Amino acid sequence: MSLSSEEPPEQAGPRLRLPGAATADSPAAPSPESAASARSSVARETVFTSRGVSVNYGAKRALDNVTLDIESNYATAFIGPSGCGKSTLLRCFNRMNDSITGFRIDGDLLYHGHDLYGSEANRVEVRRRIGMVFQKPNPFPKSIYDNVAWAARNLGMKQNLDERVERALRSAALWDEVKDRLKASALGLSGGQQQRLCIARAIAIEPDVVLLDEPASALDPIATAAIEDLITALKSQYTIVIVTHNMQQAMRVADKTAFFSLDESRIGTLIEYENTDKLFSRPSDKRTEAYITGQFG
Amino acid sequence: MSALGNTSGMVPNPMHTLKPSGNLRRRQLTSRLFVSLTLAAAGLAVAVLLILVYYAAKNGASQLSFSFLTAQLPAPGGIVPGGGMGPALAGTAEVILIATIIALPVGVLTAIYLSEFASRRIGRVLTTALEQMAGLPTIIVGVFIFGLIVQRAGPSAIAAGIALAIVEVPLIARASIESLRRVPGTLREAADALGVARWRTILGVILPTAANGIITATILAVARAAGETAPVLLTDQPVVSQAYQLDPRHTVATVPVEILQLLLSGTTSAVDKAWGMAFVLMGLILLVNIGARVWLRRSERKRGV
User: Fold this and answer.
1) Does A135 touch chain B (CB under 8 A)?
2) pTM (2 decimals)?
3) In terms of CA atoms, which chain B residue is nearest residue A139?
4) How far is B196 from chain A (nearest CA, A)?
5) Which pLDDT tens digit goes with each residue over A188-216?
6) What is the ipTM score, two decimals?
7) Chain B residues with CB inside 8 Å of A99's CB?
8) How would DSSP label each residue in chain B?
9) Which CATH architecture has domain B86-254?
């Protein structure tokens, strides 16, 4: 795939388009500009506000002074070389780093204006609102149905559980493949199916945000394409933040892209944060340009 | 491996011979000697087990019958013929049941604390404590329960059950920790990321995933406790009745102690019966041990672990 910015941002097949998808009324193959204007017609809200966020693991600083806003119903991609702190920042959003010994975060990190690390923020509640899908598919050793229903059941969403499971599996574009074997073990699914099951599991409890940490890096190209279609379809309902090593993937799915890199002392830092089209076609920082043209990283 | 031959007609260069040279012959000999030594030691261990099984079978198998397994205990003194091991079998089962009812939750909860919550330092202390507990001579456990319970409330199946629970706890806990640690961390992360509280995650995801290992550990602990004599001897004696007595507030007959007493009485008929009981006890323990391991392996293979 070329680095052309002429790619239509919406690639989802009709079967994946959710009711009420924002682009349903836009003309076929919109130019990036018209897609952008279609996007701006949706009322945006700032979901995450990061002001001077730094992260340390023990004495080692992993991420330095990150300032950016993540907006609702966008897919935002974090790209950059290994060790640049992009996954670290993602995992700060739902406090998955808390259990790592030596983890320390400084600066302000707000979720809809609430301090994510404040004394009033409950870690379990944070994760209930901000779901996450991991690099390696990690379904529970339970049935397909129970994988999706388990968290909902535990959170007290017991009414119409069957419908909830079906809705989640449909949204994850997995329903047709598993509807006849909901009681079968999830471990029997292929890697790509397992990852879509993990997405279904995450959205079954109707979170506000879905964080994806390199969700397709363990998958083949066909499964990857299915996941990417899914991300595009999901952002009408959810705010998506995706970490990816794959720049083409960021171009295909993300509205905005943040490029992270390592500074002279090998500490992860945010270099540039822009609309995806602009970041890849007219990067304003030399380091971004070097990375996306393959001269570095 | 077979010689491939040399059809190329190439003349071998004697400077590069592949035959043993230097002290290689001597080193090969030493190596063979060492391997034989380790093999002999391993063989000895297996031989002891086989001889044990052989003797118990030779002396005890002839006793085996339905009535031997179910009949009342032989009269004390070993003079009167007749009698079986029914009450002792039932009593052993009862004492083990009591022990396991206590030890299973304690052992599993300890394991959960250690693998899911404990800081590294507390974990080390607790693990060491469990190891010491597992290595504790069981007669000491018996003395402890004797002083704590028997001297106040008298001997009983409950006292024996508590003593055997102390024997079982470290066995169950240590094996359960192993199987909890084998639950992939990615499952904990997945559950955490769903906003489900940790205890729910433990009950709903982690324990079921580790269940096979925990069940196997429990079965092995039961097998171990079934053969324990010293703690039972100190906490569940004397047994006066030859009949079935299963009230846990009083003493119950148990197989190991019954074997001991038959041997002490010394008559031929009593010693024969002791061999019979030893054979049954050993057979049961072997069966349970092997069965548990086979079951674990099969269920793990089925889950694709």
Assistant:
1) no
2) 0.77
3) B187
4) 6
5) 999 999 999 999 999 999 999 999 999 99
6) 0.76
7) 192
8) -------S-PPPPGGG--S--TTHHHHHHHHHHHHHHHHHHHHHHHHHHHHHHHHHHHHHGGG-SHHHHHSPPPPTTS-S----SHHHHHHHHHHHHHHHHHHHHHHHHHHHIIIII--HHHHHHHHHHHHHHHHS-HHHHHHHHIIIIIHHH---HHHHHHHHHHHHHHHHHHHHHHHHHTS-HHHHHHHHTTT--HHHHIIIIIHHHHHHHHHHHHHHHHHHHHT--HHHHHHS-----SS----TTS----HHHHHHHHHHH--HHHHHHHHHHHHHHHHHHHHHHHHHHHHHHHHHHHHT-
9) Orthogonal Bundle (1.10)
